[in-house]
Amino acid sequence: MRAAVVTSFGGPEAVRVVETEVPEPGARQVRIRVAAAALNPVDAGVREGVFGGAGKVIGLGWDVAGTVDATGAATAWSVGDEVVALDHGMVEPLGTHAEYVVVPADAVARAPRTADAVHAATLPLNALTAARALDLLEVPAGGSLLVTGAAGAVGGYAVQLAAHRGVVVTGLAREDDEELVRSLGAARFSGGAVEEKGFDAVLDAAVLGDRALAWVRDGGAYAGVIPRAAPAAERGVRVTTVEVAADGNRLAELVRLVDEGVLTLRVAGTHALDDAAEAHARLAGGGVRGRLVLVP
């Protein structure tokens, strides 16, 4: 089968599509025939060596939508099931940017009924990250939340999930993203700067750090999206970062919200697997709204 990997770190040109063995599922694992796999900023980080692994063959891709192709022992999944999953791993020899991938059975959820595989592939990593961040922030209905990077993939899901919970959301994004951010459920919008302070919580999807922390009220909460990269706590603000994990049950809840129309799946464009380097170059160029998706 074909798979996108890096064998040395660098820019988009470091991405190679190689021939490799089709993986076999073990106990409590399933093999998915990949129909679509989203490209995320974390893939660029892996490609650049942010997470280490020099000298190894490192697979790319965390999100997958496709069809169960084979199962190991002790799984509830069947061949032919249409599914989505998060394949969690920074430095592994194979990711989801491939024709087949093996994942733990408990990382899998049934695919949305209301979306095709390309759109479904944009859900797992970013929606699970947003949901986990909101769990950490614990903003009650009626509380105030600022989401930085509100037009991005994580930020957009965070706006929709928080608004669905009855939280009063302010979205921070570029001026020309106001219509989009309000359509996702933000009650207020700020383009480029935030005049207001004293939010109950900030979900810092744009990774602004200390600048975003300053917008939280004393005793409030801040959540970052890069593990172990949070600003220092001050003024009694509870500071935390998201450690996303594969969780099929939680992913199934998010799929249900997609089918109910609560969550919007946004695709910025598609690329053939063989054009993975081109997709990386497009992501590196910035300004992408939604996710780029690789299709084997």
Span between N and C termini?
A: 10 Å
- Helix-strand pattern: EEEHEEEEEHHEHEHEEHEEHEHE
Number of strands: 16
Structural class: alpha/beta
Spans of at least 5 consecutive residues whose pLDDT stays below 50 are: none
The helix count comes to 8
What is the overall pLDDT average?
Answer: 96
Which outline best applies? globular
Quaternary state of the chains: single chain
β-strand amount: 25-35%
User: Helix fraction?
Assistant: 10-25%
Question: How many whole angstroms does the radius of gyration measure?
Answer: 19 Å
How does the major sheet shape up?
7 strands, mixed
Note the main attributes of this structure.
alpha/beta; 7-stranded mixed beta sheet; ADH-like_N
Describe this structure in words.
The protein is α/β, with parallel strands linked by helices and 296 residues long. The chain is 23% helix and 30% strand. It is built from eight helices and 16 strands. Strands 3, 5, 6, 7, 8, 15 and 16 form a seven-stranded mixed sheet that branches. A hairpin with an 8-residue loop joins strand 1 and strand 2. Residues 10-294 form the Enoyl reductase (ER) domain. It comes from Streptomyces prasinosporus. It holds the Pfam family ADH_N.
